[in-house]
Amino acid sequence: MQACQKTMNKSQLLLSFLLPACSLLPIHADDFGLWTDAGLSQNIGSTGLSADVDLGFRMNNNWNSVDRWSAGIGLNYDLTSFLKISTGYDFLYSYQIANYEDKYSSTTWKGYNLENSYWRPKNRFHVDLKGKIDVNRFTFSLRERYQLTGYNSVWYRKDKYRYNIQQNLDGTTSYILQSGYPESEQDDKSYKTNHYLRSCIGMEYNISHCAISPYASFELSNNLSNGFSIDKRRYSIGADWKITKRQHLSIGYVYNDGTDDDDESDLHVIEISYNIKGLFTKK
């Protein structure tokens, strides 16, 4: 009973860091999502090298639909006590919502195309360089990530609608579907790649004799294929709970402003991450 109460107190403390800080971030967004992942990391001897694997999924549409599944592997190497280099690969299976596109319009008729929703595989590679420095109980970090995403080609259905516009005697307007429509055809999204530099600064605070550490971060996604333009900003706050020496649970809030090759749009997100470190290391 005492252990259960202790766990509840830690969970409440975790939320006490998260909820007040949410009010400090931007509030406008098009959607509300949930991002989850579970990972396992393992040191490889005493070489400074470690490997990790993770699985995840994301929900959008106010948690009503899944829009991405992912699986990743990576390697990390400690160059120094404060500088780390990492590389990894992620397989992403992403959902693209239907897209409405006006094609023709006049005073007598109009038309539009509807690109129906589809799932699309992506292959993502990244290389990170991350530095950190401790100042009293604060840890400040800077991570620079080069990211290359390849979009596999995929077929989808396109529906074409064409209407005659009729002005009625009572002043109303009628849209009469033309003969032969809607017209459907198979189209394809061809293979493409996107290159980004993702820069992230972060801060974490180590509370004395406490297993919970609050954190905050800010990230910019710079489009290297479009003149280094900033396509997305991401604000994150939350807390990491060291459940045991090897198990960590992180709960955070993310505000995503803009879109890059993740096609996320503007949204609020609850992010939950569970990690096990050194599962195969002897105690």
Report on the structure:
The chain has one domain. The chain is mainly beta. It has 1 helix and 16 strands. An 11-stranded mixed β-barrel has the order 1-2-3-4-7-8-12-13-14-15-16. Strands 5, 6, 9, 10 and 11 form a 5-stranded antiparallel beta sheet that branches. Residues 1-8 have low confidence and may be disordered. It is elongated.
Rounded average pLDDT: 88
Helices, by number, come to 1
Shape: elongated
Order of helices and strands: HEEEEEEEEEEEEEEEE
Structural class: mainly beta
Please bin the fraction of helical residues. Answer: under 10%
Uncertain runs are 1-8
Question: Which band does the percent of strand residues land in?
Answer: over 45%
What number of domains? Answer: 1
Q: What kind of assembly state do the chains in view correspond to?
A: single chain
Using DSSP, what is the number of strands?
Answer: 16
User: For the CA atoms, what is the radius of gyration?
Assistant: 24 Å
Spatial ordering of strands, largest sheet: 1-2-3-4-7-8-12-13-14-15-16
Major sheet, described briefly? 11 strands, mixed, barrel
Report the end-to-end length measured between terminal Cα atoms: 27 Å
